[in-house]
Task: structure prediction
Amino acid sequence: MKTLDCQLAYTPFLGRLASAPDRILLLDYDGTLAPFHIDRDRAVPYPEVRPLLARIRAEGTRVILISGRPPYDLAALSGIEPRPEIWGSHGFERLKADGSYESDVLSRQHQTGLALAVKLLESEGMEPRVEVKPAGVAIHVRGLSRSDAEEVIEKVRRLWFPLLSEFPLTLFEFDGGLEIRVPGRDKGFAVRTILAESLPEAAIAYLGDDRTDEDAFRALSGKGLTVLVRPEYRPTAAEVWLRPPQELIRFLEEWLHASGGEL
Ligand SMILES: [Mg+2]
Result:
């Protein structure tokens, strides 16, 4: 795969934007719209992102954020106004643009398993790195050296491993940590749901950086444009690779232009 400057893999897609009956832009947040920050509560979008998204939306594109963060937290942190639709907790929660909220109810088994996962980390004094989510528990290793991060992840993997045979939970590693969670919901689920609710002729793109975005890339494969946004290339199911922030900004500008907006 080549970078944006060397290829125009998405040019035909941008051509379709002008005439598409619907335009839908699906966006991961951390690492895609916002650079990583050691303090994850201070990860804000690149300066150009908010105004560009506002103009893209004004030209008729539906913008939807799909993240591992809880949706209300992400609404506040991202500062994108008016609040767009947000899928949070990797597809487990959905906060629609009209303010309505949906999420699944956890079974007793899931609740017990996740509570034990938290206890195991607390017994090792790891609370500051723990994030309890509606459908999972994450350990964050941002800010640690590579070797320390690997050590923490390995340790937590060993602590949680027995839970996987006892409870219907699954483990997955993301950039900056490890999460134990309820299976069946992921970013691919969010994309499939949005596709099912959309016109088949809609022009849809998904931009993401993380391993959890691969589920979304696969769900959209053949039905829309998939874009890996990441400083370094890695093997991916996405069709196009953009290096943030410059190539990301250029992509958003081209989206705006293709949908009739002035640059
Ligand atoms: Mg990300």
Summary: Residues 28, 30-32, 208-210 surround magnesium ion (CB under 6 Å). Confidence is low (pLDDT under 50) at residues 2-6. The two ends are 28 Å apart (CA to CA). The first helix runs from residue 11 to 17.
